[in-house]
Structure formats: C-alpha cells, structure tokens
Amino acid sequence: MEAEVFESNSEDQTTELGRNFAERLHRGDTVAIYGDLGAGKTEFVKGVCEHFNVVEIVSSPTFSIINQYEGATIHDSEVKIYHVDLYRINSKKELGDIGFNECTHSNDAIKLIEWAEKANGALPGDRYSVTIKLNDDDENKRLIEIRHGGGMPDDEGAEH
After folding, report:
1. pLDDT by residue (tens digit) across 19-35?
2. Phi, psi at residue 7, to the nearest 5°?
3. Cα angle for residues 27, 43, 20 (degrees, 5° grid)
C-alpha cells in the first residue's frame, strides 16, 4: 500500500490525526509506531485512545512497558487496547519475559507499539506502521506517514 503522509503543526493536531486514524482499527489490529524521542508517538496513541473513549489517563508505559486500557466502539461494544513501549527492551529474551508475543497475537485487542523497531522481528506482518518524523527547521512540525501491510526494514530481526 502506498504511504499516506500527513503534516502536524502541534501536539493537538498529532492527537487529532491519531483519533482520525483510529476509525479504521478493529480488534486484533497491530500498529507499529516509529519515531525519535519526543516525536509525538504517545500523542498519536492518545488520539487513538480518545476515539475509543478510553477514560484512563494515557501515558507512555516506558517503565511498565505495557499498559492496558478499556475502551468502547461507537456501537458501545467494549474494546481492549494494549499500549506497549519497547524503548527499554534490548533483546528477544526480554520480549519473551514481558509476554510480548502473547500480546501481539491477541485477537481481542488493538495493540499500539511504540519503539517498534526494537521488536526484533516479532511483529505480525499484517499491521499498520506509523512513522513520525521531526522537522529540523520547526520543532512543532511533524510528518506522519501511515502504511498498512508491513513495517520498517530495521525491525525484521536485528538484535538491538
């Protein structure tokens, strides 16, 4: 699939892009999210969670690694959302220790994975990939690229 590219000029716009993107998500979907530190990955996730009416405070699970939220679809059907942050993961063994494989193969939840390049090839092939790029000239501007059906070339198996 051809990439969709959006421009964001603020945290609010990044959150709104996440909210709009979430309209296409269903239980079982995985979203791999790539971007430098401070790029806006968690703001994008907040937007997805807003779409699904998550009432908990959405924050990056940098230390807990996996947060689980309960949301609802527009038809009031419950939906579970796993928000995963792999920033502190350094090996396939650590992925196994946190139950990452079970999480990514859960068909009853939507999985949002920050720092997906650290998944060491453990992501499903049928996924969305969201890349958020910083703009060197304007600290508020981001380019957000969304693809379906595969990921970044560097997430397919290298140990980090």
Report:
1. 999 999 999 999 999 99
2. -110, 135
3. 50
Two structure tokens written together for 62: 């940098």
pLDDT of residue 155: 45
pLDDT tens digits for 102-129? 888 888 999 999 999 999 888 888 899 9
User: How big is the CA angle at 69 (ends 159 and 26), to the nearest 5 degrees?
Assistant: 80
**Residue 52 class from Cβ within 10 Å (0-12 exposed, 13-18 middle, 19+ buried)?**
buried
Q: Is the pLDDT of residue 156 over 60?
A: no
For 79, the token pair is: 């939906």
Kindly provide the b/e burial profile for residues 78-113, where b requires at least 16 CB atoms within 10 angstroms of the residue's own CB. Answer: ebebbbbbbeebeebebbeebebeebbebeebbbbb
Rounded to whole angstroms, how far apart are CA atoms 110 and 98? 17
- C-alpha dihedral (32, 47, 38, 141), degrees to nearest 10: 110
